[in-house]
Task: inverse folding
């Protein structure tokens, strides 16, 4: 078996090398591959990626940033693993948590595992109160619309079998990747298992890209896919 780690990257020159090194250092019971999607970065990200060995880099053509969702969809076309996870190119999420998410899939106890920032005894930070409240609202909305029970719909760490996510026929372009995946998995009746993870948020000044309008888009996405086949 193999775990494919998709890393969408846009203007992440400050952290891209460090996060890739962290991913490389994680010891897993199965093989892994790292696929980085350079989404038309305009800083030094592209040059940094050229110097890193042991990874696959795919750059979107042209000069226009296409968005995280499109980058993930490109990544899915270029992976060879049996299991997939998306890793943000910053340092908010810790790759050391891969093993906790991977175990129930390998042992056949789950097909989809979400890393929840809201479970467990540890106290994770929150970058902004509005983001935290928005995340809680999205989780409750997803639970209500799809009759599921999760605590962190918006988490980046969504690990699942590759054939599941490849068969979702994703349409996302930006950050609506998360609600689209959650909605389509729930409609298929696939159970989502949650595992507590570590989270260290960054601020807007440090390069955080998500905006309030992405929250509105996420709400619309959850509602839309509840009623659209």
Result:
């Amino acid at each position: 078996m193999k775990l494919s780690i998709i890393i969408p990257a846009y203007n992440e020159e400050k952290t891209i090398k460090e996060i890739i090194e962290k991913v490389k250092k994680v010891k897993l019971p199965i093989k892994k591959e790292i696929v980085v999607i350079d989404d038309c970065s305009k800083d030094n990200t592209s040059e940094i990626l050229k110097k890193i060995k042991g990874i696959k880099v795919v750059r979107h053509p042209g000069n226009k940033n296409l968005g995280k969702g499109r980058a993930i969809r490109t990544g899915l076309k270029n992976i060879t693993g049996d299991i997939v996870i998306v890793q943000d190119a910053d340092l908010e999420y810790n790759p050391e948590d891969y093993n906790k998410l991977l175990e129930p899939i390998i042992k056949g106890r789950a097909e989809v595992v979400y890393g929840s920032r809201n479970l467990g005894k540890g106290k994770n930070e929150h970058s902004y109160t509005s983001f935290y409240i928005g995340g809680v609202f999205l989780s409750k909305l997803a639970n209500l619309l799809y009759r599921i029970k999760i605590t962190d719909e918006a988490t980046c760490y969504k690990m699942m079998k590759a054939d599941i996510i490849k068969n979702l026929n994703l349409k996302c372009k930006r950050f609506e990747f998360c609600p689209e995946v959650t909605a389509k998995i729930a409609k298929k009746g696939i159970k989502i298992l949650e595992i507590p993870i570590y989270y260290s948020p960054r601020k807007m000044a440090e390069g955080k890209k998500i905006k309030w309008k992405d929250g509105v888009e996420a709400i619309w996405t959850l509602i839309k896919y509840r009623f659209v086949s």
